[in-house]
């Protein structure tokens, strides 16, 4: 196997962000995925989002499971912490890491096989516990590493490359995330970087379980006529409900948009998310309405993209458990063990 290494030298005129890094500093190794794979576009969007938000690479922990999608953390943020778990177990490992050190930004990268099949239970509990994480599913509807069998997210009636028709109902991960209590739910398309980058930025800024389902066509096994995960099909059936961007921590610039056009949502770090509604009937702060709107558009065969739901007052797992503001991995034995008197008081309260 030929190994291709990226040059370590950067051009001296490359633009640096506020923490002193160029965009190249957020890249990883050369991708070994198929040329044109949508997953590489998602990696590029993550690089752009982290660079634009001035996030130091060493403050990021990226975790994944097994599959084409779970290989991609090797292709971005090469200077960040990384952990590749066993198949489908990324959410529980990430939850443990988050509880131990709440000061890192956690990126969970998964796929439709890793999260919608063997890891479905893991995905469900991470969403309902509102773990502070960015959970990205790179969804292509097939198992690319094992020659293109239908995955659990493949649409009923979709045709495989060899002409077989999928007769099983799909697992709708966006619908599940909404029902399970995720506080930021979006769907993107790897072929629409203009929409995907701000969706990822919004997820990073969010203070709870942020889930993004990204339709990412597999050019080897699922980019043909009859597939509902191909580039052509998604572009022809895409129904975007919103566009978002950000107002930085600098003083807010007030505008006077028409009612219902723009919603300003404050973020935990003091920034503002500016949400422009493309569909006047969609309320992204109403969970039940978002679920209804999603089902209505999907029943018409539309691929719904954009920010579907956000809770601007979300609280994460640490708030629910009332943990100390200090990372648990910085506490010593005396601080972690309150002593027999505290234990006796706790036991008495449970009698």
H and E string: HEHEHEHHEEEHEHEHEEEEHEHHH
Radius of gyration: 21 Å
Mean of residue pLDDT? 88
Helix fraction, binned, reads 25-40%
Count of runs of 4 or more consecutive helical residues: 12
Strand residue percentage:
15-25%
Q: What about the largest sheet?
A: 8 strands, mixed
In words, what does this structure look like?
With 351 residues, the protein is of the alpha/beta class. It is 30% helix and 19% strand. The chain has twelve helices and 13 strands. It has helices at residues 38-52, 68-71, 90-100, 112-116, 120-128, 173-180, 193-205, 231-237, 287-299, 317-321, 333-336, 340-349; strands at 60-64, 81-84, 105-111, 133-139, 142-143, 149-150, 184-189, 209-215, 238-240, 242-247, 262-266, 272-277, 303-310. The strands form three sheets. The protein has an eight-stranded mixed sheet, with helices on both faces. The protein is globular, with a radius of gyration of 21 Å. Residues 250-260 have low confidence and may be disordered.
Record keyword descriptors for this entry:
351 residues, alpha/beta, 8-stranded mixed β-sheet, 3-stranded antiparallel β-sheet
What's the layout of helices and strands?
Blueprint: H1 38-52, E1 60-64, H2 68-71, E2 81-84, H3 90-100, E3 105-111, H4 112-116, H5 120-128, E4 133-139, E5 142-143, E6 149-150, H6 173-180, E7 184-189, H7 193-205, E8 209-215, H8 231-237, E9 238-240, E10 242-247, E11 262-266, E12 272-277, H9 287-299, E13 303-310, H10 317-321, H11 333-336, H12 340-349
Parallel strand pairs: 1-2, 1-3, 3-4, 4-8, 7-8, 9-13
Antiparallel strand pairs: 5-6, 7-13, 10-12, 11-12
Helix pairs in contact: 1-7, 3-5
